Amino acid sequence: MKMIIAIVQDEDSQRVIATLMNEGYSVTKLATTGGFLRVGNTTMMIGVDDEKLDGALAIIENVCKSRKQIATSPSPVAGITGMYVPYPIEVTVGGATVFVLNVDQFKKM
Amino acid sequence: MKMIIAIVQDEDSQRVIATLMNEGYSVTKLATTGGFLRVGNTTMMIGVDDEKLDGALAIIENVCKSRKQIATSPSPVAGITGMYVPYPIEVTVGGATVFVLNVDQFKKM
Amino acid sequence: MKMIIAIVQDEDSQRVIATLMNEGYSVTKLATTGGFLRVGNTTMMIGVDDEKLDGALAIIENVCKSRKQIATSPSPVAGITGMYVPYPIEVTVGGATVFVLNVDQFKKM
Ligand code: NI
Ligand code: NI
Ligand code: NI
């Protein structure tokens, strides 16, 4: 038995939790901090049998991994024509930090 | 030293925490999620000396274990006499999911 | 890799988190409980490379360790002159409970 502790972006959290639960994983979501720190992050605990660990990690990576997105520039800049035009910029979104811990005992009561 | 991480029903959480603390265990309650998931659950962390582990697990099992209760049916149904009568139904309440982790170092500062 | 789980006083938490982050540690603050229990405590998770463990523990001890402070008595008492005078009392503040867990796998995605 392993315990996965995963810290993901809030915007990915609902999708990764729904996907894990659909695949039969049991997920406990810990409340995010209200403070200045790590606003926008969600911490999840997932208990898994050893043979299901890789499946859970694959789901987390698939949904949450850091990726680039094209966004429109937040404020338009002057183009060479002298007109203000928006332009595409690349931003990095998502990302997950994952710890796997050994579980010494596991009990359902 | 071990760390117990126990996920219990909210309705059992005050009683199990009070019982553990009366017996000298140190309990940290993690905030439950505000979201759609696991509403009604409380997650607790309990650090215990190895020789007190079984005592803590026995308290959690005793207070929180899944059990059947008789409840009155939520909406009355028509009996054979044609009158609406409430009837008893059996529901399962409580339950706990418990992980025990090995602690590599423990410090009180 | 190790995971530090540290329970500190709220009044020390901002300072210890800021100090840890300035030194390059990655800290996740878990929401404190809203309940009767452990009001005033903050739980933090810190993932550290083995060789940086002692540095993190030293920061936590330095900022959070239990210490005595001189406070003014909350209500004045009668001095030998018969007048009510405040007097200094020694109170204990701070303190931290720290668990170090072994991390089986660590992934940044
Ligand atoms: Ni195992
Ligand atoms: Ni031990
Ligand atoms: Ni290691």
Descriptive keywords:
homotrimer; 109 residues; alpha+beta; Alpha-Beta Plaits; 4-stranded antiparallel β-sheet; two-stranded antiparallel ribbon; 2 helices; elongated; binds nickel (II) ion
**Regions with little confidence, pLDDT below 50 for 5+ residues of chain A:** none
Instruction: Give a count of the beta strands of chain A, DSSP E runs of length 2 or more.
Output: 9
As a percent range, the share of helical residues of chain A equals: 10-25%
Q: DSSP strand (E) fraction of chain A?
A: 35-45%
3D shape of chain A: elongated
Write down the secondary-structure element order of chain A: EHEEHEEEEEE
The CATH topology of chain A turns out to be Alpha-Beta Plaits
In CATH, what is the class of chain A? Alpha Beta
The most extensive interface between chains reads:
A-C, 27 and 22 residues
Quote the average pLDDT of chain A: 85
Quickly count the helices of chain A.
2
Strand order across the biggest sheet of chain A?
Answer: 2-3-1-8
Radius of gyration of chain A: 19 Å
> What is the CATH architecture assignment of chain A?
2-Layer Sandwich
| Cα-to-Cα separation, first versus last residue of chain A | 16 Å
InterPro entries (chains A, B, C): CdAMP_rec, N-reg_PII-like_a/b, N-reg_PII/ATP_PRibTrfase_C
Protein name (chains A, B, C): Cyclic-di-AMP receptor
Keywords (chains A, B, C): Receptor
Pfam families (chains A, B, C): CdAMP_rec
